[in-house]
């Protein structure tokens, strides 16, 4: 029997096409023709759709500290592991390896929900040694991915933060954040909340291939407008920038400004660990004729490698191409008026909550 490798096909509604082995696996597996016409049937038909599975875990802590000098917040909180949005470029994909799951399809089809996150957060904030600092929700995986509609874990977290007057920011690609405007708007008026919406491109076809289950670019613009109209400070993330893929940064910034965003930031694509072969596979499926050129430019920004973890350059890259992206961003922001006023959240309003079972004095 011939070990003929079955060709890979894109899966509708998913960013990746395979369950690529994670870096801790000892064995690598490849599909092959078993002699029962599998090869011909796979080549002729569309790959089957995959259902999303949700698994629950009890978190031991809610807040993670950040000491990276290139990240603007000190604490992060993520109610979910994995993300159904399926963004092919997501730098969080390799974290699924620690769960013995694939950073490929498992990352976007096997979602881990921290069902006790609100209770644990309340306990963490009640600790005498806790010092409030800038907290971001959703920095790793989207806190408003589809499962949030039913589980409402993110809303539970915001309710706790509202009760203790703890400031926070949220970054998302989802219009689902509009559900929680009843909490966000009053907190924003008190300088306790800010929102950032990621718009990678205005090209709907590209977005469907690159971010298959996230809100459409036009829907995200509507979310920016809604936030601004309700007085919530809102910014736009035009990240990641990928050479020869999403080349409409200026148009995205213009549309976001028109919708009401007043701050903006960007990063260039970074491909740590298993993300590099995942992204290469995506390029081969969707952009085979320019895949080599795209990877050459990415490596040019990373000192000839797929990824460079140097804090000085990992977010923005290095070299001529990275400098060109930086100039485009800065000149467009200056022309439009982005980032002229910094959003300052007020840490002084924090009032520690009582631990569960402990009576409140007031």
TrEMBL record:
It comes from the Bacteria. Keywords: Iron, Iron-sulfur, Metal-binding. SMART domains: Elp3. This is PA0069 family radical SAM protein. CDD domains: Radical_SAM (cd01335). Coiled coil: none annotated. It comes from Polaromonas aquatica. The lineage of its organism: Bacteria, Pseudomonadati, Pseudomonadota, Betaproteobacteria, Burkholderiales. Residues 73-297 form the Elp3/MiaA/NifB-like radical SAM core domain.
